[in-house]
Design goal:
Layout lengths: L1 H14 L2 E2 L3 E2 L13 E6 L13 E3 L5 E5 L2 E5 L4 E4 L15 E3 L5 E4 L3 E6 L2 E8 L8 E4 L5 E5 L2 E6 L2 E7 L6 E4 L5 E5 L2 E6 L2 E6 L9 E6 L5 E5 L2 E5 L4 E6 L6 E7 L2 E6 L2 E6 L2 E4 L9 E6 L5 E5 L3 E7 L3 E4 L4 E6 L4 E5 L4 E5 L2 E4 L9 E7 L5 E6 L2 E5 L2 E5 L5 E6 L5 E5 L3 E6 L2 E7 L4 E6 L5 E5 L4 E5 L2 E6 L10 E6 L5 E5 L2 E6 L2 E5 L14 E2 L4 E6 L2 E6 H8 L9 E3 L17 E2 L5 E5 L2 E5 L13 E8 L2 E2 L6 E3 L5 E8 L9 E7 L6 E3 L5 E5 L4 E10 L5 E12 L7 H92 L4 H34 L5 E5 H11 L1 H7 L2 E4 L6 E5 H17 L6 E9 L2 E8 L6 H4 ...
Parallel strand pairs: 1-23, 2-23, 61-67, 69-71
Antiparallel strand pairs: 3-30, 4-5, 5-6, 6-7, 8-9, 9-10, 10-11, 12-13, 13-14, 14-15, 16-17, 17-18, 18-19, 20-21, 21-22, 22-23, 24-25, 25-26, 26-27, 28-29, 29-30, 31-58, 32-33, 33-34, 34-35, 36-37, 37-38, 38-39, 40-41, 41-42, 42-43, 44-45, 45-46, 46-47, 48-49, 49-50, 50-51, 52-53, 53-54, 54-55, ...
Amino acid sequence: MYFLLLSILLFFCVSNVVVFGQINLDKSNSPTNTLDDMIVDQFTVANGFPVSTFGNMYQDSKGYIWLTSYEGIIRFDGFKCDIFNTENTAIFTENSFFEIVGDRQGRVYFNSTKDIFVYENGKIEKVIVQTEKEKQMITMAIDVQDRLWVASPKELFYIENKQKHIFKQSESTRLKVANDPQGNIFFIEDKQIFSYSKGELTIILTEKDLPKSDIGSIKSYKDGTLWISTDRGLYYFDGQKIHREIHQNSQGGWQILPNTTTGVWITFYDQIYRKIGNQYHRVIHSLFKSPNYSIFEDREKNIWIIAHRRGLIRLKKRKVNYYPSDYVINTVLENDKQLIRAGENGIIESFEDQKWKKLVTKIQKGARIRNIRQDKDGKIWISAYPSLLSIDNKEQKLYFAEKSFRLSFRDKKKRLWLSNYPNELFMMNNDQLELVQRFKSSIMAMKDDQQGNLWVATAGNGVFVLKDGLIQKHYDDQNGLRSHIVFNIYIDNQNVVWLACNGGLSRIENEKITNFNTKDGLANDQVYDIIEDDQGVFWMPFAKGLATVSRKMLNDFAQKKIQKIVSKVYDQRDGVFSNGFTPTAYSAKGTNGKMWFPAIDGVCMVDQKQISTDSTLLPVHLEHFIVENDTLNLQENIVIEAGKKHFHFQFTAICMYAPQSVRFKYRLGGFDTEWTENDYQKREAIYTNLQAGKYIFKVLACNSEGIWNEIGVTLPFEIKAFWYETWAARIFAMLFLWFLIIFFYQIRVKQLKKRQILLEKIVAERTTEISAQKDEIQMQAIHLQELNHIKDRMFSIISHDLRSPLAQLESILFLLETGSMSQADLQDLMPLINQNMRYTSDLTNNLLFWAKTQIKGIEPKKEEFDLYELVESKCNWFEKEVKKKEIVLNNHVSPNTIIKTDQNLVDMLLRNLVGNAIKFSKKGENIRIKSKIIDKNINISVIDAGVGISPENLKKIFGNKNFSTKGTNDEQGTGLGLVFCKELLEKYGGQIWVESEQNKGSNFTFVLPIL
């Protein structure tokens, strides 16, 4: 072994192995911002972290990132933090922690100023070994056997089976330890570096290899290189030679992250460098102006940096490249020669040598560039407010400088179509404009299909299909489209027309329209444009991002092969700018497959070839199962005592790139029949009042590409039953119940026999009663039928006859209230108002009297009264009507005619009969009221000399149907009074009849019994 060490030393001395291929990082090397292809995110106390300064970090085998701090240990799943400190971890005596490492079994080790702890299976335990107070500054590493190695300033040892094993004691105060990805151990003693592997100790480097250098730290990486941080710079050893990578005097340590997918990264105090090619460039960003303590790359290829007092910084690769601008971009064009963009301020720029350069054109300064398109002959057409410009092999030609053009389009027949502001469609022939159509709203897009039809989209009138300039068809929201606002058109190679609409996406094939919106799985209901990439995926800009969905999936949905589509969104998390896209801009697909999307403050570019589909299944973890505030051990068979009511599952899925895109679904087997889906924020499931039995809780997670981890994580558990819910208790209860049934059955049989004899006797008696009741019920049924018929008549009258005069009165009152009627007009209408009020009053009195008889029944209230006085009061009642028609009412009843009967009934009968007599009497005629007592009956007659009643109407006036005719002054009637009179008289044991001859008057007589 000593011979081997000597040979290595001689080799280094003879061959002069120190190769200073150094890169000097002094002030003469100007900094370069190399983060254009990266997204920078910051995580601080605002994101739930307890502090914004951390010590070290580590990603465990499950994917969690662990951080040490002065406020405890932090576990981060990309979305939320779990904090372990003295408040929730009894074993801790302080909250300051420093180093952190982990093994392949999922154990995580970390140390405080005095102790070393391990996290395993959800529990934190203290490792048996305790470091002495003077040995606070330690380093830790894990070897290939998952043993924990610890280097304190004067002691190197490892822990195995919770036992401490001294490996080396030293007088050096710079004893440090590290490991490579394979688990080989490296340690520093004085100015020498050793390796320990498979029981052999080997000297790697000595002081001669690193002259005049104090070694700060060592790290080994997957490629076998050993990186050494010293006060004279940064070195790496490739197994044969040592290379000085960076030469710069330093009192601090370097952190190196080589061979990542995004290059080599190095942090040094308050500086961060990134290697591009063979040159290191300093990374400029506001977050990197303080000391940077640690850097590493996670499994998803994100770079994480701990920045002093600035939290945890994440650098992730952009999926959408972004080229900012100081003005709104309306249009972009990429051909095999150049990339051009233009917008609101009249500037047209070309992208050359990674910079945007202004192009000189004939378009007037300040013009708004609306659209740039290249036809199949290679000529570029630029539409602007104002003018139209063509560029052909750098030759520019300006057209119509006084007109404003929104869009140009050259169809398959090489006809040039132009739309101006706001809504006219032209065809240009021989540099002359020919007006083709004028629309009601602005033209947003034009495309031609395989049949040579020109499709024209408008901003408020849908889509038109033209053939040789003539409109053939029209589609809008009235005949099937999502909206009448259509922003853009795309026609695929199958001649299917796709429309980007204000309300979603519309598909037209053979005149059949299929619409897509968020209910169907579309990412957004605002679709501004459609570009199809080389893989058959639609890219559709909306206000805050880019939505994608495969054309095949959309076609399958239209053909009803699937019930829902899956749409992915690229937004700020993937590199899309913050201010958003506009619906009036025009996207473009370049000749190399790149897609360009104009935006409010720049241009976004998507290269599908550079966007790798994330097919990695998200690791799903069940973190806690809490039952009645008790957190259960997930590693044990879980059996829950009976009586527990509240069950709380907490789960997560590790996603460090875009945790907001994670979705979950869970199901409790034995209880749920369907899956419940949650978004990234809700990482829990709660159940209450579960019955006794066996259950299996399962949760799945979906990544940003819509790929579900169907394996997920499961947790079986059992809820015990109460003693009375066991099978033994149930069997005993069933036997006891059976005994009780038999016992009570015997008793019941005896009782039934006794009751049978009694019932036979009762049945015979009841049969007789039922026979009598049957007859009574039949009579009641007939009576109820009559009442129902009367009710229908009453409501018919109320709805028709009562509403009409009230409506007239309401109209008059409204005119009075609004001042639309004068006092003179009101005076003219007073007779009509009085007539309506009298009509309404009569109808109401009749209805109330009838309703009272129906509710309280017929109970005549017989009392003595003077019939003469009653008739005289009725004459006074009709005084106004009589004077109006100049009619004479004659009371021929003898004074002091005292009778005993129902006075209210007689009053109602007289009011109706006298009212009818007045109604049908002519001006100047007489009406007589007479009475005669015959055999305990009173006969009362109302005789008029009016228009009389025709023979056919005599049959109707007392009928069941309402019959009414107008009076001599067009007075209205309900036809209800005589019907009520007849019905009530018959119930009182009386009767009514009429004698009449047309044009000679009528004689109505009714008879009532009296005492």
